Amino acid sequence: MTIQNQTTLYTMIIYSENFAGILNQITAVFTRRQVNIESLNVCASSTPGVHKYTITCYCTEEMAIMLTKQIEKKIDVLQAHYFTDEDIFTMEACLLKLSTQGIMENPAVGHIVRQHGARIVEVNPTYSIVEMKGNTDNILSLFQKLDEMKVVLQFVRSGRIAVTKLRVELLDKYLAERELEQ
């Protein structure tokens, strides 16, 4: 995805030890460089005691390099890498609260939900909850079509989660090399 000034959507995957305040240190790097974070997801990684940060932002490749280098300088950060969409598998999730009355009055709503591969997970007389997993464009397409039908009461989507297309996790390789050095 490209927008003006030759910027690209980059996904940064950062691994850190699990200490309070790291998120603030990482986001401060973006603030200092005046780069807006588009999405942010933080969770425990498969390595005990290590957290994984998945951050997306629009910037140039030069800026992505600079950001990852600055982030890696933080004491408790183990690794930071940047990727384009071609280098990773990604997914987001969303929840939509829809007017049940609006759904009943317009059968096209159910068709749009099914067409997008979403599913209705809750129905009551006031509202219905729809969930969807997929890429950003498909999720936003579903939202826009339902919003045009005036049935959306609430909409929320998660930050991006991502895994690389590499055979081995970069963190595992790094930790193995670090173990050999000791």
Question: How would you sum up this structure, described in words?
Answer:
By secondary structure, the protein is an alpha+beta fold. The protein has 2 domains: 82 residues, ACT domain (Alpha-Beta Plaits, 2-Layer Sandwich), CATH 3.30.70; 67 residues, ACT-like. Chain A, domain 2 (Alpha-Beta Plaits). 34% of the residues lie in helices and 40% in strands. The protein contains 6 helices and 10 strands; from the N terminus they run E-E-H-E-E-H-E-E-H-H-E-E-H-E-E-H. Strands 1, 2, 3, 4 and 5 form a 5-stranded antiparallel sheet that branches. Strands 6, 7, 8, 9 and 10 form a 5-stranded antiparallel sheet that branches. A hairpin with a 5-residue loop joins strand 3 and strand 4. The longest helix has 13 residues. The chain is elongated, with a radius of gyration of 20 Å. The termini are far apart. The relative contact order is 0.18.
How are the SSEs ordered, and which strands pair?
Elements: E1 2-3, E2 7-17, H1 22-32, E3 37-44, E4 50-59, H2 61-72, E5 77-83, E6 88-99, H3 100-105, H4 108-115, E7 119-123, E8 127-134, H5 136-148, E9 152-157, E10 161-164, H6 170-181
Antiparallel strand pairs: 1-2, 2-4, 2-5, 3-4, 6-8, 6-9, 6-10, 7-8
Taking the sheet with the most strands, its summary is: 5 strands, antiparallel
Query: What's the structural domain tally?
Result: 2
What's the overall average pLDDT, rounded? 90
- Overall structural class, as computed from helix and strand content, comes to alpha+beta
Q: How many β-strand stretches?
A: 10
Q: Which CATH class of the largest domain?
A: Alpha Beta
CATH topology of the largest domain: Alpha-Beta Plaits
Estimate what percentage of residues fall within beta strands: 35-45%
| Architecture per CATH nomenclature, i.e. the level-2 architecture of the largest domain | 2-Layer Sandwich
The helix content is: 25-40%
Number of separate helices: 6
Rounded Rg:
20 Å
Low-confidence stretches: none
CATH superfamily of the largest domain: ACT domain
